[in-house]
From TrEMBL:
Domain Ketopantoate reductase C-terminal stretches: 178-299
Organism of origin: Salegentibacter flavus
One GO CC annotation: cytoplasm
Gene3D superfamilies named among the record's database cross-references: N-(1-d-carboxylethyl)-l-norvaline Dehydrogenase, domain 2 (1.10.1040.10), NAD(P)-binding Rossmann-like Domain (3.40.50.720)
Key words of the record: NADP, Oxidoreductase, Pantothenate biosynthesis
Pathway: Cofactor biosynthesis; (R)-pantothenate biosynthesis; (R)-pantoate from 3-methyl-2-oxobutanoate: step 2/2
InterPro entries xrefs: 6-PGluconate_DH-like_C_sf, 6PGD_dom2, ApbA, KPA_reductase, KPR-Related, KPR_N, NAD(P)-bd_dom_sf
Enzymatic reactions: (R)-pantoate + NADP(+) = 2-dehydropantoate + NADPH + H(+)
EC numbers, comma separated: 1.1.1.169
GO biological processes: pantothenate biosynthetic process
Family stated for the protein in its record: Belongs to the ketopantoate reductase family.
Identification of the protein by name: 2-dehydropantoate 2-reductase
Length: 308
């Protein structure tokens, strides 16, 4: 299988590295010093499951050099999807599968604005990893897993084929009964902690210690559940309880990647997290005052980050 990994950050770098290690033809889209290092020395992955180094079939920042892929894995941020997908149109075929793995509840919808439905499947991943240095990915926590499925949740031949690819690469994977519920379950957790974390600029344990802030955290999650349910996603109280169980178990000093982007003055996924909830709620005539507060307070910083 000819595989294109678009974005060699913590997600794309780890999973792309595993696929290359398994012998698949892997092309990596990277840029700058990261790309230079990969071309000079290969991609190094330091992992709690064992370190390895791979040399991709091709590493480039020029899509014109890329042959038509059978599978595209998107490792970019959710706010970059539309720009990246527009570029992919020129190289994919009617049979190419495009799998988004970024955080966010509406990544599939963004893809479908540009690509035919036949090209798109839904997905997410669980992993804690990042670019430590140019050419090096560091995986520090959590057993990496990819969850994926057809948009209509059918058990298609290509879904089973993709499972066999991930199995061969020794990537833990899961095909759920309802892929959209799984996407919203992860979105519930990450959107709940990211915005308030970015606004307070403290770690999760500090938010937990504050009765007032922890209450805001819970209200954020309840509003997300309201929007999900109004959109037909069966997000339930048990899923909120599970999310807060994870929040309670986060070690001291833990921050979300979007929070770190906000604090560093980089463009973040604010629009795709709290902003998405606020805008969907307005369409559905639902009140989400806590998400709106978080979103509006962070929006000036977000605009400044994007303008710079």
């Amino acid at each position: 299988m000819n595989i294109l990994i678009f974005g060699i950050g913590g997600v794309g770098g780890y999973f792309g590295g595993k696929l290359a290690q398994a012998g698949f033809d892997v092309t990596m889209i990277a840029r700058g010093k990261h790309l230079e290092a990969i071309n000079e020395n290969g991609l190094e992955v330091e992992s709690i499951n064992g370190d390895f180094k791979v040399k991709p079939k091709l590493a480039t920042d020029n899509l014109a050099e890329v042959s038509t892929p059978d599978l595209v894995i998107l490792g970019v941020k959710s706010w970059q999807i539309q720009e990246v997908t527009s570029k992919l149109e020129s190289i994919i075929s009617a049979e190419t599968i495009v799998l988004p793995l970024q955080n966010g509840a509406n990544n599939v919808e963004k893809l479908l604005e540009i690509l035919p439905k036949k090209n798109v499947i839904a997905g997410l991943c669980h992993i804690v990893s990042f670019v430590e240095n140019p050419g090096k990915i560091k995986h520090v926590s959590f057993e990496p897993r990819i969850t994926f499925g057809e948009i209509d949740n059918s058990n298609s031949e290509r879904i089973q084929q993709l499972k066999s690819v991930f199995d061969k690469a020794e990537i833990a994977n899961f095909i759920p009964e309802n892929i959209h519920l799984e996407i919203w379950k992860k979105f519930l957790f990450i959107a709940t902690i990211s915005g308030l974390g970015g606004l307070t600029r403290v770690s999760i344990d500090k938010i937990r210690e504050s009765e007032y802030l922890y209450d805001l955290l819970q209200k954020t999650a309840q509003e997300i559940k309201l929007v999900a349910n109004a959109k037909g996603i069966p997000l339930a109280e048990e899923h909120l309880e599970k999310a807060f169980e994870i929040i309670k178990n986060q070690p001291s000093g833990t921050t979300a990647s979007t929070q770190r982007d906000i604090m560093a003055g980089r463009p973040s996924e604010l629009e795709n997290f709290n902003g998405f909830i606020v805008k969907e709620a307005e369409k559905l005539n639902i009140s989400t005052p806590v998400n709106k507060l978080i979103y509006e307070c962070l929006l000036p910083m977000e605009r400044e980050a994007r303008n710079s």
